[in-house]
Amino acid sequence: MLSLNPKTLSPSPFNPRSFVIPKKPSISSPSLYVNSTTCCQPNQITERGILFYTGDTFFRHESATGRDLGVLSAALYKQSKGQLRVLDAMCGCGIRSLRYLVESKADFVLANDANESHRRVILDNLAQVERLEGEKKRWVVTHCEANRILTDCYLQRDYFDYIDLDSFGSDSSFFLRAAFSSLKLDGLVYVTSTDGYSSGGHRPFHSLSAFGAYVRPMPYANELGLRILIGGAVREASVLGYRVTPLFSYYSYHGPVFRVLLRMNRGKLPEKRDYGFICYCNRCGNSQAVSWDELGQIRCPCNNSTKDAASLVVSGPLWTGPLHSGAYIMEMLNLAEQWGWVGKAAGTGLEKLLKRMLEESDPRLPFGYIKLDEVASRAQTNTPSISTIMSSLHKEGYAASRSHIAHNAIKTDCPMAGCIRIAKKIHGC
């Protein structure tokens, strides 16, 4: 376990000589420009007007939205704090590092990737931004295992404002403690998981070892993926005396990919019911949050017998609080509008996502979502349209929104029985 010393809020200059990097022949990086039409590396790609090369690195076009969200959040930090030092712990081809430099106006980026064979591609991409020297140095490339680079930064007391952990599977859970140790107070961690099996409840002991949560199959598995990721971060941060708060949570079906932006400050575990257990009843379709002191007393209102209690499944501990900060999502949306990333000329993808996240930020909405196919099955009717059932829910005074996670599902404080009644009413049953 890492021991902590008091953190300074002022950045210390990064000294690349502190990192032991295997020697290799010097590489002459060509001068590259955003509007360049030349190509010295294979797989030339443009993203948000920025030219870069992927070479033989793993790269997904579909992850561009996640990169957009990261760039927006980093830019908001720079506007708020006046400075921005980024550690991209698993940078791949370096596109995120490049975008943090160009679009978020990062003062310094440490681009690290454990695979040294990616070095030429990363250097060629970052060469579009003048490196400079000394305290004005804009970027450095290293090749270390993520935990090592994070721990070395902590030992040097070289703290960062923003740390990007973009790993595969549930690996990010193993880097979180080192990441929090090398992060400034009020800094941001952008963490990733692609472990869809654990969120679906198919590997409960794996989710227990990786995130500290035993997860059972539930109908809103992809939201559980975000909640166990946040819950794992809450656990790791609390060990170090810190408290983390999610600013936004993003799910994408490709992968699948679970991405969460967390803000870290000093503090204890969250109060109330934000970190606990989720219970789902297969019999009636209702869910409920269960606090630690309620364990052993779990009952669903739809049954009282011991036999009926077998219909209950419990997952946790995990994050049961809000997935987004509505105020923060609004700031991101406003900045995206300023940059021309939303609007008629920019397409609807990012704007639609941010507005849906804003709807999901309604404090009246509980965790989880309800699939309309499940409502129709229980009501024995055709599946109602989302707009129709949401309109009916709003007329009856319930909170309801679409889910950015599942296209044919809604988030609502109306119980399943109420949704079934409304579905029957819509179809004249």
From TrEMBL:
Q: Name one GO biological process term.
A: tRNA N2-guanine methylation
From the UniProt annotation, give the residues forming the signal peptide: none
Which GO-annotated molecular functions does the record name? tRNA (guanine(26)-N2)-dimethyltransferase activity; tRNA binding
Per its UniProt entry, which superkingdom is the organism in? Eukaryota
Keyword list, A-Z? Methyltransferase, RNA-binding, S-adenosyl-L-methionine, Transferase, tRNA processing, tRNA-binding
Q: Which SUPFAM superfamilies match?
A: S-adenosyl-L-methionine-dependent methyltransferases
What InterPro entries does the entry give?
SAM-dependent_MTases_sf, Trm1, tRNA_met_Trm1_C
The cellular component terms of Gene Ontology attached to this UniProt record, alphabetical and capped at eight, are: nucleus
- Oxidoreductase is among the record's keywords: no
Which EC number(s) does the record attach to this protein? 2.1.1.216
Catalytic reaction list = guanosine(26) in tRNA + 2 S-adenosyl-L-methionine = N(2)-dimethylguanosine(26) in tRNA + 2 S-adenosyl-L-homocysteine + 2 H(+)
Task: Tell me the enzyme class.
Answer: transferase
Q: Name one Pfam family in it.
A: TRM
The Swiss-Prot or TrEMBL record describes its family as follows: Belongs to the class I-like SAM-binding methyltransferase superfamily. Trm1 family.
Protein name per the record: tRNA (guanine(26)-N(2))-dimethyltransferase
- Please report the organism this UniProt entry assigns to the protein: Gossypium darwinii
Give the classification, highest ranks.
Eukaryota, Viridiplantae, Streptophyta, Embryophyta, Tracheophyta
